[in-house]
């Protein structure tokens, strides 16, 4: 069937109107040019909104860091009242990354029971206190884990005079554990799964559990192996106490922040990663300044601010990683000084060796790029 000339005229007029409108639209709103292949966008092209927590720290000129009340090797005060330890050094490294001053830290000693409330109440900016990353804590809606700085596991400390070779021999034993932690739950799981009768002697704090064990109010003390190693150094005759071979849990310990300030959690996460990467790349407290100027390895140059603007993405200076490593050393230096061969604990790196060490461990720094 043919098409009438009137309908053709109407169609032609409509098409002309559409073309005219399109032309007007181009005049009013310029076309967006199609991107062609070229260099990727750099960190400098990304604007970041600074976190409220980071803003508060910069205003007050101090980081509020929650730590253990007193755990040898991790967080404790020396005879001059100065805070020392593995976790304390990470607090100082974080303060240096943010403020350029490792001493701009207020250490807030916390118990297992009040540590999370201190975060919720804004008494602290970050909790760096041997806290295990678990599903319940991660999905509870209040906490954000920024990473793992120590892979631990729960064990048992007993008197050598008991002649025990395994925790499976603790039938009918009194076992000291700390309330408000995963220790009591892990011990219950271990003994129940093996149908072993035991008596849990629950104490309000790790120190109280340690003291009860020292007074022989229990036959064994169960806690993280690192805490047991620290506890043994405080006993009157450390050589008379032995760690049993069983490791009954996985305890990934690391810094915790408040949920809802992702940018602040990123600052904590990447400061931890910077200290880990520094060890992997051979950047030390002694050579970090030289490396920041002379390094040719692009990975090192990005880490130390010679290339890119990764500090800007965090709301920090270009020298944030240089400042952190210069203040406390790299991860390996922090470990050896506080927990390893240079410390009374003399703990092996074990799982806390770098991923590419021989033998390898679980410590693995995320790439800065």
Describe the protein in words.
The protein is an alpha/beta fold. The protein contains 14 helices and 14 strands. It has helices spanning 5-28, 52-60, 86-99, 115-120, 135-138, 183-193, 206-214, 225-234, 262-281, 288-294, 298-303, 310-314, 320-328, 331-338; strands at residues 63-68, 76-77, 83-84, 105-110, 126-127, 143-145, 150-152, 154-159, 174-178, 199-203, 220-224, 241-243, 251-253, 256-258. The strands form 5 sheets. A 5-stranded mixed β-sheet has the order 10-9-11-8-12, with helices on both faces. A hairpin with a 5-residue loop joins strand 2 (76-77) and strand 3 (83-84). Helix 3 packs antiparallel against helix 13. The longest helix has 24 residues, at 5-28. Belongs to the bacterial solute-binding protein 3 family. Keywords: Signal, Transport. Residues 62-291 form the Solute-binding protein family 3/N-terminal domain. One of its GO terms (biological process) is amino acid transport.
